[in-house]
Structures are given as structure tokens and as C-alpha cells.
From TrEMBL:
Its EC number is 2.5.1.25. It is an enzyme of class 2 (transferase). InterPro entries: DTW (IPR005636), DTWD2/TAPT (IPR039262). Keywords: S-adenosyl-L-methionine, Transferase, tRNA processing. Residues 2-188 form the DTW domain. Pfam families: DTW (PF03942). This is tRNA-uridine aminocarboxypropyltransferase. Belongs to the TDD superfamily. DTWD2 family.
Length: 200
């Protein structure tokens, strides 16, 4: 028999995260395009981002039939948060007379995210932006595929803090940290130290 689930954060009721999820407003609009394989992931940080930001939307799928409408909300200019050739380094975007960004964020493994771009040519054609090098992930349960590799939620927090400084979006990470602590507690300190700390 399955455990009762919170309909909002999709966690078991006994481990509901809703009290830790903030309600933050951003000038930047965030559009999260989540590969279906991520929905059941234990962390599902894209969902945490969408729940914590009032100006965010989460869509799940591989092909998005209404993508042209999604990418062109009135009053915004779309940017794809994804590294690659020609990606512009994100810096403070403070000019009040310029349009705020629609930050489009593919959510999935690198392979699945690239598949989303391949299946949705409108995405691949967007101007790309990327974070400065040297970011450190707080995801202590997974070896990052490379330097600067962040979870979707961490990447969004860092991007918003660059674009909208001095505003702080750190509270979005509270449920993320709680999830990681819960997973470490469930596996036991010895297992965590043996399998994760020794390999750091």
C-alpha cells in the first residue's frame, strides 16, 4: 500500500516540504520544461523552483505543442539557460528600460535536456545564457558530471541573484537542503561517509 502523498510538493505526507517552500516574486519569468523522467525523481528541484516562485511555470513533456506561445509572453525577452557555443555569460541585468527575461530552463539529465532541444527546434534557436564558472553544488549525494554542474534549482537561484541583485533567492534552497539531509539520515551516517565523503 502506497503512502499518502502531499498533492502540492508530491512528497510523502510524513515528509511534506511545503512549510519550507517560500513564496518569492521575481522580475524574471521562469519557464521550466521538465523531461517526464524527472517527475518521479526524489529531489525534483524543478518542481521546488516552480512552487517557490510566483512568476514561474512548470511544464512536463518531450514535445511542447504550444511552445511558440510559451516563449513569447508579452513584455519579456526569452533566454535559454543552457551552456553551449555562443552562450552569453549572465551578468547583472539591471537596465530598467530593457525588457525582463523569460528564463527558459530545461530540466533533466544533460542527455535528456539535449533531447528536449533537439525535439523542440524553437528552444534550440533561443539566445543562450550560462552561469560563470566555479559554482559549487550543494548536492552532496551525487558526483557532479563536471565542474560547475548544478541542480536545476541551484542554477535558477544563482541566475536570479545575478539578474536581480541585491535581491536574495537563497530561501528557495531550504527544501532542497532538507531533502538532502533527509536522504543522508535515511542511509545512515556510516553509509554516507563510506560512499560519498570518501570519494569527494
Amino acid at each position: 500500500m502506497s503512502r499518502a502523498q502531499c498533492p502540492r510538493c508530491l512528497r510523502p505526507q510524513s515528509h511534506c516540504l511545503c512549510e519550507l517552500i517560500p513564496h518569492l516574486h521575481s522580475r524574471t519569468r521562469v519557464l521550466l520544461l521538465q523531461h517526464p523522467s524527472e517527475v518521479g525523481h526524489a529531489l525534483n528541484t524543478a518542481r521546488l523552483a516552480a512552487l517557490g516562485l510566483s512568476n514561474a511555470e512548470l511544464r512536463v513533456g518531450e514535445v511542447f505543442d504550444d511552445l511558440e506561445t510559451l516563449l513569447n509572453p508579452p513584455g519579456y525577452q526569452a533566454r535559454l539557460l543552457f551552456p553551449g557555443q555562443g552562450a552569453q555569460l549572465i551578468a547583472a541585468h539591471k537596465a530598467e528600460d530593457s525588457l525582463p527575461w523569460l528564463l527558459v530552463v530545461p530540466d533533466g539529465t544533460w542527455r535528456k535536456a539535449r533531447k528536449l532541444l533537439h525535439l523542440n527546434p524553437l528552444l534550440a534557436n533561443l539566445p543562450r545564457v550560462t552561469l560563470p564558472e566555479g559554482a559549487q553544488s550543494r548536492y552532496r549525494l551525487r558526483k557532479a558530471p563536471g565542474p560547475g554542474a548544478l541542480s536545476t534549482l541551484e542554477a535558477i537561484v544563482q541566475t536570479l541573484e545575478l539578474l536581480e541583485a541585491p535581491r536574495v533567492f537563497e530561501p528557495l534552497l531550504r527544501p532542497f537542503e532538507a531533502l538532502i539531509e533527509g536522504q543522508i539520515e535515511a542511509m545512515g551516517a556510516q553509509t554516507y561517509q563510506r560512499n560519498h565523503l570518501d570519494k569527494a
